[in-house]
Amino acid sequence: MSKITDKTGISVSADVVLKGTLGKRGNYCNLGAYHYILDVQEVVSVDNIKPGD
């Protein structure tokens, strides 16, 4: 389950399946908070969309 914000600014939760390539271990994003980066090539499916917080 992932929390996302749609193009209207409404927060929702959804089950998202992606196809992509996981990058090498490193320090990415804000202050190196993430050890991996995902290069997404395809959104396979989005299901179980529910209103968020």
Give an account of the 3D structure.
The model has no long low-confidence stretch (mean pLDDT about 85). The chain has a three-stranded antiparallel beta sheet, with no helix packed on it. It has one domain (about 1-50). It has strands at about 1-5, 10-20, 40-50. By secondary structure, the chain is mostly beta strands. A hairpin with a 5-residue loop joins strand 1 (about 1-5) and strand 2 (about 10-20).
Reconstruct the topology from this structure.
Blueprint: E1 2-5, E2 11-22, E3 38-51
Antiparallel strand pairs: 1-2, 2-3
> What structural class is derived from the secondary structure elements?
mainly beta
Number of DSSP E strands = 3
Helix share, percent? under 10%
Q: Biggest sheet: strands side by side, in what order?
A: 1-2-3
In terms of DSSP E residues, the strand content is over 45%
- Measure the end-to-end span: 13 Å
Q: Low-confidence parts lasting 5 or more residues at pLDDT below 50?
A: none
Q: Please summarize the sheet with the most strands.
A: 3 strands, antiparallel
Average pLDDT over all residues: 85
How many distinct folded domains? 1
Give the CA-based shape.
extended
